[in-house]
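Chapter summary example.
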Amino acid sequence: MPLTGIRVLDLTRLLPGAFCTMLLADMGADVIKVEEPGTGDYMRWMPPLIEGQSVLFNALNRNKRSLTLNLKSEAGRELLLRLVDGSDVLVEGNRPGVMERLGVGWAVIHARNPALIMCSITGYGQDGPMAARAGHDINYVATAGVLGLNGSGGAPPSPLGVQVGDVGGGGLQPAVAILGALVGVQRGDEGRWLDVSMTDGAVSWLALALAQQGAGEDLRRGDQRLAGRYACYRVYECKDGRFYSVGALEPKFWAELCGVVGKPDLVELHFATGDDGMHVHQEMERVFLSKTRDEWERELAGLEVCCEPVLDLDEVASHPQIAARGLISSGHAGVEVRPAVRMQADWRRRDAPGLGEHTADILGEVGLDADRVAALNAAIWARVSSTVPLLLMTWWARPRFSSIGSCAPITASAWSRVKPRPDMRRSICTCSGT
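The structure predicted for these 434 residues follows.
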């Protein structure tokens, strides 16, 4: 694999950092999740669960190992620094200043291993007036201007169905930067500190919109070249309440579509605006409302018109193109999406780890013998086993978010499914001593 031999320490929680390090793990990197004893990554406990672990966590943490360390203890920090000695990348997602307060900030890390790349993923970056501000994806895309462009004219902005700030700005772009920095180290550069802002990432995806605005074009929600202005590029409702996407930007595709649907008079109004544009929109709306989505799919199949049905999420996996590419699979750990760019057939090496599942192995790699790990586990298990349910109940007592964004109270039946995995007890080491 391209990144075989590269070790990545992942100190992040939730979506952005997990997506970033999954991309690296899928290319062969040895990604070690460094987690807080007892609770670990909060995403582990978000319903729905399989065998006491969240399917959301499983979807983002395959091909990784898990180690529990108490970074608030001197011994835990020292063990992290031992790991730093033999690692290539450290990814963290704390607010600015937290790593320094823990005694493992950039100055310490760089002095310990000058070749290591440290990637800090935050909402707003390491500096600026909002650097220490709390936030989530909706706030980052709101600040970036992405949210304000999304939705229909005259209506409130609509949150995007995919977390662009988290996945794009906090997952994909730092992964690319890490790969570039690794190439630099291989060419003789020192390691570097990557300041990743999810807001910056979202702004960077507005390059074309900002260029258009800078040239004097008026960009408004629901009235942009590729978002509602032209009848040749929009979504239409069908007779059955389902939807069809039309992307006939090129004249040949628009002419073909107009001919197929019996509206040759609209060919010359391809990019019409104003009253003419409204006329084209209304005519095409009436056209698509005349048939169901599936009827349109049969009628337009094989034609060069750049039109495709809008699929609901439960239809995606069975779509012939998605199925042929082998993108989505179901297994004992839940539904999984393979890497978008697959480097080789055997990219999948292991399931998402249990909390601290590989603690003994990893600490053995930095010189802590098995007897010492076993002694630490025995000393702290009673304390951790009593605090885990309390910590989880505190977390779960809050309204929980489902995978489709709705909220519901935690139920007794769901709570009964929360239990440490069988491997958790032997591997939960807090490393409060060496």
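To summarize the output: The domain at 233-325 is CATH 3.30.1540.10 (formyl-coa transferase, domain 3).
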